[in-house]
């Protein structure tokens, strides 16, 4: 057993750090070791419990109801609001779409209206559930264009079962005009979902401490459901999210029941059936420990870190904000003297992980930061590393893709991508083909190639890449 745990620690050494505030994507660090310890111990205590049947594990039901009640109070939910704890933001988004679709059995070809900045989870839901996604371009401020959203709804209101807005959108960190969109959806009898997966646990506290936050909660008439992740800015262990509905009538189509088989009658509130009670227990333990006072303090910390980063970026001539952040997400763009991908590589060399975002709809590639409370003690170090990284990127010059490689990428058909095509691109990127595939230390050249590709081609390339990475390790047979 000791050898196995030692091997786990050895393998984990290659992962991004989840503590220390230096990983500004994927993980959310409160910077409070005791809170982290409590969450992990709660997960371990309930790792064997099964959330499939709440009557068999009543403590799970009690924790879920208390966590949903805490969330409902936080998001201005009315009396009668209900909710479900899911495995994460994607499952919450999937269920919001599935529930909206199944609430309208009279609609044979359902559609939903979403801004172009909506999280990809909603496009995944559209793909899974056969709901047409009507994607509406956003305005110059990167917020949903309310007039364009209204026009898209009215283009076919009889088939529209859902409209989605974000608080905030992931890519740019700004809150959509929820009141205007929700009001029009309500006039047409259409559900309005607010995707607050990444902002839902921090924006209410931001308002409490006096920051200017656009309206987006259930206090806005017409909002029928909200998703908010507790494994993000509630700083709970991975993976939990809460999907709240304005009423039980709104939630009921989300449920799945099946009795017409010889086994037990299946009843599910989520996509999963069997699910560990560990993540729920971890979220309940952390939120109960921190309470409103704890979250207000963490919110002050994270926004102080955001403000310091924003002010520091203003002093780096080669960088600018894509948009003034409404929440804890910051998107940066470089000028023509350097490129975002090289800056990201340089930050990684200085033990900071920041996320590259590809060019989209005429907008250049950007650098994305998900700032945590745990980043605040290191904000000065972050800015020093950012200044150094930008200087190094300027010295190196913008990453350029060989014209022949660019022409090769442009000529590829994403629907007919072959293994030979993929191996050719790997070779052009300086990677080795075949099944023994690993990422290079620097990703700028690879990202620059991906940035040239169309979205469809990028999807095909990344699917091929993941397929190569995810291959079984077979035990040696004697």
TrEMBL record:
Cross-referenced Gene3D superfamilies: Aspartate Aminotransferase, domain 1, Type I PLP-dependent aspartate aminotransferase-like (Major domain)
SUPFAM superfamilies: PLP-dependent transferases
Cofactor section: pyridoxal 5'-phosphate
GO molecular-function terms, A-Z: transaminase activity
InterPro entries assigned to the protein according to its UniProt record, in alphabetical order: GrpII_AminoAcid_Decarb (IPR050477), PyrdxlP-dep_de-COase (IPR002129), PyrdxlP-dep_Trfase (IPR015424), PyrdxlP-dep_Trfase_major (IPR015421), PyrdxlP-dep_Trfase_small (IPR015422)
Keyword terms, alphabetized: Aminotransferase, Lyase, Pyridoxal phosphate, Transferase
A Pfam cross-reference name: Pyridoxal_deC
Lyase is among the record's keywords: yes
Highest rank taxon of the organism: Bacteria
Protein family: Belongs to the group II decarboxylase family. Sphingosine-1-phosphate lyase subfamily.
Record's protein name: Aminotransferase class V-fold PLP-dependent enzyme
Top-level taxonomy: Bacteria, Bacillati, Actinomycetota, Actinomycetes, Propionibacteriales
């Amino acid at each position: 057993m000791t050898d196995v745990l030692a091997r786990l620690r050895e393998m984990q050494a290659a992962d991004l750090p989840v503590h220390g505030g230096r990983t500004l994507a994927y993980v959310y660090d409160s910077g409070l070791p005791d809170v982290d310890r409590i969450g992990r111990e709660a997960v371990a205590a309930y790792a064997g419990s099964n959330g499939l049947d709440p009557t068999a594990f009543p403590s799970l039901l009690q924790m879920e109801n208390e966590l949903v009640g805490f969330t409902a109070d936080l998001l201005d939910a009315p009396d009668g609001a209900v909710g479900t704890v899911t495995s994460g933001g994607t499952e919450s988004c999937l269920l919001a779409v599935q529930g909206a679709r199944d609430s309208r059995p009279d609609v044979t070809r359902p559609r939903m209206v979403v801004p172009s900045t909506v999280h990809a989870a909603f496009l995944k839901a559209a793909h899974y559930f056969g709901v047409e996604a009507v994607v509406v371009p956003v305005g110059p401020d990167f917020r949903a264009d309310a007039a364009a959203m209204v026009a898209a709804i009215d283009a076919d209101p009889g088939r529209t079962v859902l409209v989605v807005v974000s608080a905030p959108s992931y890519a740019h960190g700004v809150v959509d005009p929820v009141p205007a969109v929700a009001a029009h959806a309500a006039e047409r009898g259409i559900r309005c979902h607010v995707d607050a997966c990444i902002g839902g646990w921090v924006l209410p506290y931001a308002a409490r401490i006096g920051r200017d936050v656009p309206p987006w909660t259930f206090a806005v008439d017409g909002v029928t459901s909200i998703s908010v992740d507790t494994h993000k800015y509630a700083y709970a262990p991975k993976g939990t999210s809460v999907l709240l509905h304005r009423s039980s009538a709104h939630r009921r189509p989300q449920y799945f029941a099946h009795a017409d088989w010889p086994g037990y009658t299946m009843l599910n509130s989520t996509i999963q059936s069997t699910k560990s009670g560990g993540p729920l227990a971890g979220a309940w333990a952390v939120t109960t420990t921190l309470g409103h006072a704890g979250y207000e303090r963490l919110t002050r910390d994270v926004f102080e870190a955001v403000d310091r980063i924003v002010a520091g970026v203003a002093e780096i001539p080669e960088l600018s904000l894509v948009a003034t952040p409404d929440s804890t997400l910051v998107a940066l763009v470089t000028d023509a003297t350097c490129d975002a991908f090289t800056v990201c590589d340089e930050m990684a060399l200085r033990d900071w992980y920041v996320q590259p975002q590809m060019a989209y709809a005429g907008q250049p590639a950007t650098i994305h930061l998900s700032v945590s409370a745990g980043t605040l003690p290191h904000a000065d170090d972050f800015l020093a590393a950012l200044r150094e990284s930008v200087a190094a990127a300027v010295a190196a010059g913008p990453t350029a893709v060989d014209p022949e490689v660019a022409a090769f990428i442009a000529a590829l058909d994403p629907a007919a991508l072959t293994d030979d095509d993929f191996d050719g691109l790997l070779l052009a990127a300086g990677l080795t083909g075949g099944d023994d595939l690993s990422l290079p230390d620097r990703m700028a050249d690879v990202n620059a190639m991906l940035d040239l590709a169309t979205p469809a081609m990028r999807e095909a390339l990344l699917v091929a890449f993941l397929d190569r990475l995810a291959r079984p390790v077979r035990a040696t047979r004697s």
